Amino acid sequence: MFGFILKPVKKKYGKDSRYYRLVDDLFGIYPDNIELYKLALIHRSASVFLPDGTPINNERLEFLGDAVLESIVSEYLFLEFPDRNEGFLTQVRSKIVSRQSLNELCRNIGLSEHIISHAGGSIIQKHLHGDALEAMIGALYLDKGYDTANRVIIGRILKTHLDIEDLTHTETDYKSRLIEWCQKSKHSISFRTGFGEGSTSQNPVFKSIAMIDDMELGYGMGSSKKEAEQRASFAVSQAISDEMGDNFLDWIDERTQARK
After folding, report:
1. In 67, 175, 212, 230, which residue has its Cα 20 to 30 A from 90's Cα atom?
2. pLDDT at position 122
3. Digit-coded pLDDT (tens) for 138-148
């Protein structure tokens, strides 16, 4: 009966007051289950354990938040661009939910300084911020439901901190572009991807080699196969442009003929 009185008291003076303020600042809501948001800020590198020795971190919330974010962004783009095809919508969505974009969003909304971690590796550090943002989205979804999550993500994050129009003109999906380029040019392309040096089960590192007509032309490293292949594709793309594409193809043809 006195919940409307206790809520502001907890927010200002309770032991979790800083978390209540954080969620209010980020999402403009009052949490029903503050523990979800606290968990969302714990990266696995922090090595936090329950009294029984069970490790706790934000990985499960990150998994959920990733799916929720993709659904919200898909719906938003579907409504925002009614005349654009599936390929365009997919490309813009991939830019919005990319690790680079999520890392930047995390920093822009002021979430980064609240993450609990001991991440020293460069690969971990690159994913730390975006992972935390996805985990917070997962917490928001569990706490308030899809409709509230949708309203908050679109209104307070995407429309406020992202220039969607600018993203539609920015190239980030280098792998798809490279595959399309090879198909049009009638050249084969494949990726040789596996675990890289120093990879562990806790901190996987992948190495990918982009191969055109069985020649190794680009290398990339990342914490996932997808990221490694994107970086390998980017490396190849640096040697390819609309102006020099024909010369590059001629060079590949010469190399291919020389190997026969």
Report:
1. 212
2. 47
3. 999 999 999 99
